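Severity: low
Component: inverse-folding endpoint
Summary: output formatting inconsistent between runs
Steps to reproduce: submit the following structure tokens with default settings.
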């Protein structure tokens, strides 16, 4: 592998420059100028390397290095470009610039690949600006009805739809997806636990992941003293 540590650190710091805040961390929230600048800069870097780079309707950036075998088969990698507030340089970003550098190294070392290679910089994963998560990946698998965006706004009252349109994107209407013809997908990501450190390992390969299911629960009732309030006057939670 010809990619040096210095090149990795250079690309890491370059991407981290979009959204650097006063704490020394990064705040790169969905559909903000910092987020859009990062996506546009990545698009240019992909194109400079010989990839075909384009946005889908919702803001996912897709960079593809065409294969030579004449098929539509794609091997893809990627992650998300948005951050939490005061986030670090690697969460999400590692999966994007790591994939880009890997493809760059393969092409420079061995020439054009047989299978098309793709990097996907997903629009959003963190839910840091809006109470709505996985905008990028949900759209890639077609699970976001437009009605889901009704009433969704950030802390400043800017609606999701308004912010999205200001960046030039909209809801998904096309029947195509960045995952079309993808035969394998790899996401390089930092570990957010302590397993690798505790076991003295540098790399882990995930074979399964914990599924999440979230509920919104609203309880109706009236707080009162449990011992002295007669049952006929209580309005317990139901």
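Observed output (run 2 of 3):
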């Amino acid at each position: 592998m010809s990619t040096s540590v210095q090149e990795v650190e250079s690309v890491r710091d370059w991407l981290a420059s979009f959204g650097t805040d006063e704490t020394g961390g990064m705040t790169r929230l969905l559909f903000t100028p910092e987020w859009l600048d990062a996506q546009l800069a990545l698009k240019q870097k992909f194109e400079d390397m010989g990839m075909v780079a384009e946005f889908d309707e919702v803001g996912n950036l897709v960079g593809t290095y065409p294969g030579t075998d004449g098929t539509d088969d794609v091997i893809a990698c990627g992650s998300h470009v948005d951050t939490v507030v005061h986030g670090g340089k690697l969460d999400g970003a590692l999966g994007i610039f790591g994939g880009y550098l890997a493809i760059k190294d393969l092409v420079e070392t061995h020439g054009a690949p047989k299978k098309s290679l793709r990097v996907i910089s997903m629009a959003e994963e963190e839910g840091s600006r809006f109470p709505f998560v996985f905008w990028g990946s949900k759209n890639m698998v077609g699970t976001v009805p437009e009605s889901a965006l009704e009433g969704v706004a950030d802390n400043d009252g800017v609606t999701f739809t308004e912010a999205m349109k200001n960046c030039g994107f909209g809801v998904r209407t096309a029947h195509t997806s960045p995952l079309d013809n993808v035969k394998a997908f790899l996401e390089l990501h930092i570990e957010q636990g302590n397993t690798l450190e505790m076991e003295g390992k540098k790399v882990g390969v995930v074979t399964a992941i914990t599924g999440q299911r979230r509920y919104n629960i609203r309880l109706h009732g009236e707080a009162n003293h449990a011992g002295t309030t007669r049952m006929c006057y209580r309005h317990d939670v139901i």
